[in-house]
């Protein structure tokens, strides 16, 4: 168990008071600022439509912690079919929506810390109660993100992620 939430960064040597257990991306990887002015495109903190034909929802991809209480969470975007996106919007404020079956989606967020691309990984999007972002489950493959979601991660992994995100200039380039 870790009593102090902060850590001493191996990259810069400074003490950071927080060790975040979640990070959120602002938009799907396919969003661009020029789309913000387009009538057929919209980005909110939860939903995104691109050119009236690509539909996304933001969810939480949670990874269990093996040596601490709780989970680590990536706020990621997942593409949904037009029908599933419509259903998501229809049920957005409906109590009991968590009884919906999971929706298939493609991961639409690039998480640069896994050595290989996370874009287009197959997922299942599980609707949760009103006020909670959907849970994103990566298809169980040998991709490092899928393995982490199945087997968990340590607080040392959380610290490594924090250091790499605080100091992107030192991040190694993904292989391949």
Characterization of this structure:
Helices cover 16% and strands 27% of the residues. The chain is of the alpha+beta class. The strands form 2 sheets. Strands 3, 4, 5, 6, 7, 8, 9 and 10 form an 8-stranded mixed β-sheet that branches. A two-stranded antiparallel sheet has the order 1-2. The relative contact order is 0.18.
Task: Summarize model confidence as the mean pLDDT.
Answer: 88
Task: Determine the strand fraction and express it as a percent band.
Answer: 25-35%
* Largest sheet properties: 8 strands, mixed
- End-to-end Cα distance, whole Å, is 36 Å
By helix and strand content, what is the structural category?
alpha+beta
Radius of gyration: 17 Å
Question: Approximately how much helix is present in the residues?
Answer: 10-25%
**Low-confidence runs (pLDDT<50, min 5 residues)?**
170-176
Number of helices: 3
Given the C-alpha coordinates, what overall shape results?
A: globular
Instruction: Please count the beta strands (DSSP E, at least 2 residues each).
Output: 10
- Order of helices and strands, N to C? EEEEEEEHEEEHH
Descriptive terms for the model:
176 residues; alpha+beta; eight-stranded mixed beta sheet; 10 strands; 16% helix; disordered C terminus
